[in-house]
Amino acid sequence: QVQLVESGGGLVQPGGSLRLSCAASVxxxxxxISLMGWYRQAPGKQRELVATINSASATNYADxxxxxxxxxxxxxxxxxxxxxxxxxxxxxxxYYCNLRFGAVISWGQGTQVTVSS
Length: 117
Known about the structure:
Strands 2, 4, 5, 6, 9, 10 and 11 form a seven-stranded mixed sheet that branches. It contains one helix and eleven strands; from the N terminus they run βββαββββββββ. Helices cover 5% and strands 51% of the residues. The protein is mainly beta.
C-alpha cells in the first residue's frame, strides 16, 4: 500500500509563496521511475491537474500556474515538491499529491492552501 503524506499548506496573502512537500512510502527505485503530480480541488469544482514530473524530471504545468509554480523532486528522499509563488485567491484549494507507477495510482490526503488578505 503506497502512502503519500503532504505538508506545507496554510494561509497566505495574495502575492505570497508556499512550498508543498509530499513524501512517498515506496522504494527509491519505484519513486524515481514514477510519474508524480500535484492536483487541486476548489470548493464546488472538479479536481484539476496542477503539475507533473516524470522519471526524467520533465515537467508539465496547467496554464493557470505556468511561470508561478515549480514542481521538483528529490529521488534520494522520495519526496516531490511544489513551489508556489505569486499566489492568487483563485489558487485557494485542497492540493493533492499523486503517484502513478504502472497500474498503481495513489493519492495523498490533501493539504489546504488558502490565499486571502
